[in-house]
Amino acid sequence: MIDIKLLRDDPQKIRTALKKRNLDIDLESIIELDTRRRASITEIQELKSKRNALSEEIGRLKQQGKEPKKLMEQARSLAEQIKLKEDEGREIDVAFGDAVQWLPNIPHESVPVGTGVESNKFIRGLTHAPEPDFEVLPHWDICEALDILDLKRAPKISGSRFILYKGKGALLERALINFFLDLHTTKNGYTEIFPPVLNPTECLYGTGQLPKLESDMYRCRDDALYLTPTAEVPLTNIHRDEVLLEKQLPINYVAYTPCFRREAGSYGKEVRGITRVHQFNKVELVKYTTPEKGYAEFEKMLADAEATVKALQLPYRVMLLSTGDLTFASAITYDIEVYAPGMKEWLEVSSISCYEQYQARRANIRYRRPTGGVDFVYTMNGSGLATPRTFIAIVENYQTKDGRIAIPEVLREYMHADSIDK
RNA sequence: GGAGAGGUGGCCGAGUGGUCGAAGGCACCCGCUUGCUAAGCGGUUUCUCGUCGAAAGACGGGACGGGAGUUCGAAUCUCCCCCUCUCCGCCA
Q1: Above 90 in pLDDT, residue A307?
Q2: Nearest protein residue to B62's C1' (by CA)?
């Protein structure tokens, strides 16, 4: 949630942000609602103040054994007025609350302004796609040939766009998850969490998936629970409604979870293979920091995510997303993309986003400053990494001319082998 | 799923209709004291919203798991929901 004080103090800042994001939201009517909301609050407060004074007087008189009928009558009529005004106020409140939930975060000043991926900015890494000296098979062909993915039978179990790993494929998937977790816990200073993946509505509002992405999530029929779309949701909600101590910060969490996405409306593109699926595995990083240290920690997180592709020796580049590609709740996002020479495409394997205080306001995550006072923390998260596309990148980049897949050095201890072959 | 007990401030914990925002303790911060560590003494410190203010702040509303209700007045009474603990049932 944005800071609603901005609505009164600096609405231009919000207008600019909305424009940068190419969004057409009627801000004036939200400001109008806020004005009405505050007027209603003031009115109710004055009535209550009067009633409280009367009640106190009544209490005093009663203790003296008197029965102040007239005062009680007055108080009763005040109470009735209050009830009416409160009902009115509640309606305004709900309308305002709903509207404000749809205001996205304000992009960081360094974020390039644009309408989509074409405006994303190259930060570092490879400027050109590497060209192998032989014809690399796309992952769906090589994996079928080596019998490590069963793309034909997966739909039988769950439907299209689900992955069935098999044999060395399943092992490779598990190896990736273990490698990422080990790297982040032993070298990068994250605490491992293994959270539940069914999350209630409040959690999804807290991190900002709701209300916007309602149709993109799987929901349980009989309970108000959603299958988590990313471990960001459980990890960021661990400290929902808490006041942390400054000395506890930064908090660094890493978790492996499966992630579930309906991907509604995304059909028609990228249909082959396993680049876009309904269930995938991901190791996710989440940090809570003070505002002061937020961006330093954010850069560290980017480096932590980048360390994975470096260790796997995959061709990659880091992109800074433009306002047209930036998600709703994020102030700034870097993507790490790896190149898949079989598909001849750059694939996003990690998204590293800083939310500043946006999620903390929604989820009410604060910390106590040693000098006194409380403030909202900064939250941020990044994939480290999502496996299916990393899997693709390995299978395609480590393919050999004779149709085997070599194993990246750092994964050999997990795979107990140097290559996957028939 | 059934029965019982309970959910109070950053934490622990008293409080069953009216000066209770809430005793006491811990923690924190400030000062003093004791030649270190530890401790002792005194004092301070809830959060949130609205109005006014450049600010410091002032005034007022609200908050005792969440929501609705009874009442002039609710931490305290009633109802619904959530969570925790104990017992029973079921079960990977």
Answers
A1: yes
A2: A45
Spatial neighbors of A272 by CB under 8 A, at least 6 apart, are: A138, A140
Asked if strand B comes closer than 7 Å to A55 Cβ, the answer is yes
At A44, list the tokens. 């109710």
Question: What counts of helices (H) and strands (E) characterise chain A?
Answer: 13, 15
The whole-angstrom separation of Cα A204 and Cα A228 is 9
Q: Is the CB of A47 under 7 A from strand B?
A: no
**Structure tokens belonging to residue A140:** 């769906």
Q: Which of residues 70-99 of A touch strand B (CB under 7 A)?
A: 72, 75-76, 78-79, 83, 90
**Angle, to 10 degrees, between the axis of helix A168-186 and the axis of helix A387-397?**
110
**pTM tops 0.90, yes or no:** yes
The whole-number average pLDDT for the span A120-141 is 95
What is the model's pLDDT at position A355?
A: 95
Which ipTM did the prediction report?
0.85
pLDDT above 80: residue A266: no
Helix extents (H) in A199-249: 201-207, 232-237
Active site residues of A: 261, 276, 348, 351, 389
